[in-house]
Design brief:
This protein has 379 residues and is α/β, with parallel strands linked by helices. It has two domains: 47-72 and 183-370, Rossmann fold (3-Layer(aba) Sandwich), CATH 3.40.50.1100; 77-177, Rossmann fold. Helices cover 42% and strands 13% of the residues. The chain is built from 13 helices and ten strands. The longest helix has 21 residues, at 25-45. The mean pLDDT is 93.
Length: 379
């Protein structure tokens, strides 16, 4: 005996083929219908408006805000949630009757609760207890359940534990945001911006300014700019208590922050896997008081309330406009209106909350007013 399995040639019986078939007709029908529903939703709602922020015409500079608050769930995260659900469905990770679980400070969870309801699966948001009450209400409005934690740094392990206990899928936006989105096009946010600018006087923006929560949106924009060979530069504005700026400057993938960001939706205590530093040309660190001052200035300028992350990006965009004015440079700058301010009436629009946080926005409001009146940025 040689120890080899018998073969037909040696007179032995043929070995059976090993065949494991995990396909299930009912699951495949459910999957096709779920994907159809998500794609149909994109056909109805994918594009959003591009608003102009008023600047003196003599400056020769146009400033735009991509208004992502007009999505059905009211924020930039609607695009991300759609991409994550399609990614999870097509990978076979999201299953009928099993919950989708996510670590989120609010807006992503609102949008994911919406898509979970659309395809008929449960949704659990693991989020800091300090998340605004309005975001909690919106998650529950869309059929989601909120699992609150006292320590924001524990959200990742709590999500993994809940997924294991329930047999559900931990969506993990911070790992998959940059790969779930088709950065080459498919009406992503970058392609939409360029299409909407094509009839403007400066159709190729000099700068696009974003903010980073997962980092997926800025990765998409940076990659798209390079893929289409535009000269546009990408700037990311980072709030206080976030490690992204320090990690980017030092090229330190292990950078961390010991505190949670006060600007909901952006800023992280660790360098997230979806944050792609080399897709970014510039970063600015923005004081939280400046972010709040900027959203209040936005309301005065265009009559729209927006969340704090919009203020972080707008402050940086106006700083870039000021630099262009000094150089006599003409062109356009685009930033994002990430979500509506009515979710934050008890925070960024509350003087009591500002006092509680020790934030004085008055010097930053004066700086903005001076700049918009004179074109000079106070040092």
């Amino acid at each position: 005996m040689t120890g080899e399995p018998p073969t037909p040639e040696s007179g032995g019986a043929p070995q059976p083929t090993v065949d494991v078939d995990r396909s299930d007709a009912r699951y495949r029908e459910w999957l096709k219908e779920a994907v159809r529903k998500v794609q149909a939703e994109a056909n109805r709602t994918a594009d959003t408006h591009l608003l102009r922020f008023p600047l003196p015409d003599s400056w020769g500079i146009d400033l735009y805000l991509k208004d992502e608050s007009t999505h059905p769930t009211g924020s930039l995260k609607h695009r991300l949630a759609r991409s994550l659900f399609l990614y999870g469905l097509c990978n076979g990770w999201i299953r009928p009757g099993k919950p989708v679980i996510e670590a989120s400070s609010g807006s992503t969870a609102v949008s994911e609760a919406y898509f979970a309801s659309l395809i008929g699966v449960p949704f659990i948001a693991v989020m800091p207890r300090t998340t605004s009450a309005e975001k909690t209400r919106l998650i529950e409005f869309h059929g989601g359940r909120c699992h609150l934690v006292d320590n924001p740094r524990t959200v990742y392990e709590v999500c993994a534990r809940l997924a294991k206990e329930t047999g559900g899928h931990y969506m993990d936006q911070f790992s998959y945001a940059e790969r779930a989105t088709d950065w080459r096009g498919n009406n992503n946010i970058a392609e939409s911006i360029y299409q909407q600018l094509r009839l403007e006087r400066y159709p190729e923006p000099t700068w696009i300014v974003g903010t980073a929560g997962t980092g997926g949106t800025t990765a998409t924009i940076g990659r798209y700019v390079r893929y289409l060979q535009y000269d546009t530069r990408v700037c990311v504005a980072d709030p206080e208590n976030s490690c992204f700026f320090d990690g980017w400057v030092r090229r330190d993938a292990e950078a961390t922050s010991d505190q949670a960001s006060r600007i909901e939706g952006i800023g992280r205590p660790r360098m997230e896997p979806s944050f792609v530093p080399d897709a970014i040309d510039r970063m600015m660190k923005v004081p939280d008081a400046a972010s709040v001052a900027a959203v209040r200035a936005l309301e005065q300028a265009v009559g729209r309330k927006a969340g704090g992350s919009t203020g972080t990006g707008l402050w940086s965009a106006l700083r870039i406009v000021a630099e262009m004015v000094i150089r006599g440079q003409r062109g356009s700058v685009v930033t994002l209106l990430c979500d509506p301010g009515d979710r934050y009436l008890d925070k960024y629009y509350s003087d009591a909350w500002l006092a509680e946080q020790g934030l004085d926005i008055a010097p930053y409001r004066r700086a903005l007013d001076t700049f918009l009146e004179t074109g000079r940025w106070p040092c």
